[in-house]
Amino acid sequence: xxxxxxxxxxxxxxxxxxxxxxxxxxxxxxxxxxxxxxxxxxxxxxxxxxxxxxxxxxxxxxxxxxxxxxxxxxxxxxxxxxxxxxxxxxxxxxxxxxxxxxxxxxxxxxxxxxxxxxxxxxxxxxxxxxxxxxxxxxxxxxxxxxxxxxxxxxxxxxxxxxxxxxxxxxxxxxxxxxxxxxxxxxxxxxxxxxxxxxxxxxxxxxxxxxxxxxxxxxxxxxxxxxxxxxxxxxxxxxxxxxxxxxxxxxxxxxxxxxxxxxxxxxxxxxxxxxxxxxxxxxxxxxxxxxxxxxxxxxxxxxxxxxxxxxxxxxxxxxxxxxxxxxxxx
Length: 329
Hints:
With about 325 residues, the chain is α/β, with parallel strands linked by helices.
C-alpha cells in the first residue's frame, strides 16, 4: 500500500506554484543541454501518476469524475505519454493541464519542489493582509491580500473595521486575494449583517475519504466588535480574485449586502489539501465543494460575475463614484 502523507490541512488554498529550480551539477560532469534532454526516471513518473490516481479515486469530491480522471492519466502512462518528460517542473505543469482538462477544476494542481516557494508575501508589515485607508468623500477602503486563519485574522479584522466604522461607505478590494480560510471569510461577512440574527453564510460539503458519503461543515455569522449594517458596501474583484476571495464576494452578493464591481473572477470553489507523492512532487486534490445556502450552488468553473462591470484600470474609480453617490442618498 502506498504511504500517504497530507502536509496541509484542507482549506481554500492560496495559489501555490512549482519550484522550477534545477539541481546543481558541475559543467564538467554534464552539460546543461544534456540535462535538459535527460528524461525523468520512469519509476518516478509511474510513482507520481499512480499516486495522483489513488488520491483522485479515494478523495476527490466528485467520486465518478475522480475515477474517470484517474483512469485517463493511467491510460496516458501506459501509452507512454510521459516518456519524454525531463524537467520535473514541466512534468508537473503537463499533469496539471491534463487534470484540469479532465475535471474542469482549477483547484487541482501538481507541484514540484517547495509548494510555498512562490506564495505571495503580505503587503502589510504585520502579515495579516489588511491595508486600510480613507478615500475622498469619507469612503473607507480595505485591501485584503488573503484570509489567514481566524486566530490571527479576527483581531486584524476588528481593528480594520473599527478604524473605518464612522465612514459613509466602504470599498473592500479583493482583486489580489488568492484565498485562505473559510471561517475568516464568514467572520468578515458578519460585519455587514444584522448582529441580532445568526445568518447561515456558506457550507462546505466534504467527501469522506474512500467512500461515496459526505459530511457538511456550516459557516454562520458571529458577533463582531462593530457593525457596518445599513451602509453601502462595494467589493472589487478581478481575474486574480480566487477561492476564498471569491467566496467573500459571492456570499455578500447572494445576501444582497454588497455591490460587486470589476471583472469576472477565476472560479475556484473546491477546497483541498496538499498531498506528498515523493521525489519532491505534491498534488492538490479537492476533497470538498462550496454550497451557498441561498443559491444552492457556487462559483466553481464560472467565477463571480460583477453587478457593475469595470476594467481593472478603472475598477476602484467606478466603485468610489458609486459609493460617493449612494452614501448621499
